[in-house]
Amino acid sequence: MHLLSVDQLDKNYIEKLFNIHKIPMDREFYDKPLKGKTIVTFFAEPSTRTRLSFESAMYAMGGNVISVADGDTSSLKKGESLKDTFRTLSQYADLIVFRHSNPDWPEIAQKYSRVPVINAGNGNREHPTQALLDLYTIYKELGSMEGHKILFTGDLENSRTIHSLLKLLPNNEIYLAPTYIVFGTGQTVHHLSLPNNYKSENYKTVLTHEIPNLLPEMDIVYMTRLQKERMTLYHPEVYNFCMTNDLAQTMKTKSAILHPLPRLTEIDENVDDNHRAAYHERQIKNGVMIRQMLLYNMIA
Ligand code: NCD
Q1: From the alpha carbon of 227, which atom of ligand 1 is closest?
Q2: In the 8-state DSSP scheme, what is residue 60?
Q3: How far is residue 294's CA from residue 18's CA, in Å, rounded to a whole number?
Q4: Which of 100, 161, 179, 224 to probe ligand 1 with, by most ligand atoms within 8 A of CB?
Q5: Which DSSP letter does residue 20 get?
Q6: Residues forming beta bridges with residue 38, ordered by sequence position
Q7: pLDDT value at position 153?
Q8: What is the rounded CA–CA span in Å between residue 260 and residue 246?
Q9: Cβ(181)–Cβ(192) under 8 Å?
Q10: Closest Cα partner for 31 from 23, 20, 43, 39?
Q11: What is the pLDDT of residue 19?
């Protein structure tokens, strides 16, 4: 009923989702299969792509959208509980798309929502629909979802997109190169590595300065920004890998650079026109497509 974690998704469901319906991306999708249905998009953390792609997907299929784009304008600000929030939202819509910094909200949703809920981000834990669109992008870029060398770099500790996506990539060779930060008197180094519950013995961890040597072998490089808003430390110095066009050129012709966005300094703008850069157009378009397929599957 809900989509709260990628743990709910098996291979059959994903393959079906990627192949079903071949829903046209066209905003004037003539069948309007979600006519008369309403979703609420409730985002208590910032978002550009996730919220707007859900809304765009819904409009494309003839449905209605009501939205809270900033939790501070909702009764959460007055101290209303998440329980009561879900009880209320259930009365307005056929489905709820929800994002909040409390990592435990999915358990509350499961108990108190009367309609299906899609997790659009629970703190630094999970982001299942981004993982689906990322997996779909890998599939479209390379022609399959298995047997690839995939490097993840950036803030692996806080990137919920990576936590979710890793669980959908069982038969691939995974390399991790976490950004590291130095803080305090300059003596304390902290690697932004995967939290323990997302770790696996099968992943190879490398240092960020080793990335340039690995690039020629990689099929996918997946990058994320530093999530300063989740750090309690003051002004850390950041040592992240920066992708430049010269480095991107050393990758295979058929390979891709992915980023869930927003991008900060980790990808130089001169990479944007490289054919390997999937993050702006292809990954974003796939996001609308995947959300169309999901909404269709869940409420049509
Ligand atoms: C990501 C998120 O919110 O987790 N963005 C997104 O949904 N496309 C990544 C991020 O905020 O860095």
Answers
A1: 12
A2: H
A3: 10
A4: 161
A5: S
A6: 64
A7: 98
A8: 22
A9: yes
A10: 23
A11: 81
Q: Which residue, among 17, 61, 7, has the nearest Cα to 39 in the 3D structure?
A: 61
- Which of 51, 127, 290 most suits a substitution to test ligand 1, by most atoms within 8 Å of the C-beta? 127
What spacing in Å lies between the alpha carbon of 99 and ligand 1's midpoint?
Answer: 11
Q: What confidence score (pLDDT) does residue 190 get?
A: 87
* 164 CB neighbour count, 10 Å cutoff: 26
Is any atom of ligand 1 closer than 6 Å to the C-beta of 263? Answer: no
CA of 137 to the centre of ligand 1 (A): 16
* Buried residues in 68-77 as b, exposed as e (16+ CB within 10 A): bbebeebebe
Query: Cβ–Cβ contacts within 10 Å for residue 111, how many?
Result: 10
Ligand 1 centroid distance, CA of 127 (Å): 8
- In angstroms, the Cα distances linking 113 to 21, 80, 110, 155, 223 are 28, 15, 6, 32, 34
Residues taking part in catalysis:
49-50, 78, 99, 127
Query: Can you tell me the distance from the alpha carbon of 155 to that of 225, in angstroms, rounded to the nearest whole number?
Result: 6
Q: Which amino acid is at 238?
A: V
Atom of ligand 1 at shortest range from CA of 155: 12
For the record, the structure tokens of 58 come out as 């819904």
Whether 161 is in the pocket of ligand 1, judged by its Cβ within 6 Å, is: yes
Distance from the CA of 200 to the center of ligand 1, in angstroms? Answer: 23
Quote the pLDDT of residue 159.
Answer: 98
- Beta pairing class for 237-239 and 64-68: unpaired
pTM of the predicted model as reported, rounded to 2 decimal places = 0.95
Low-confidence ranges of the chain (pLDDT < 50): none
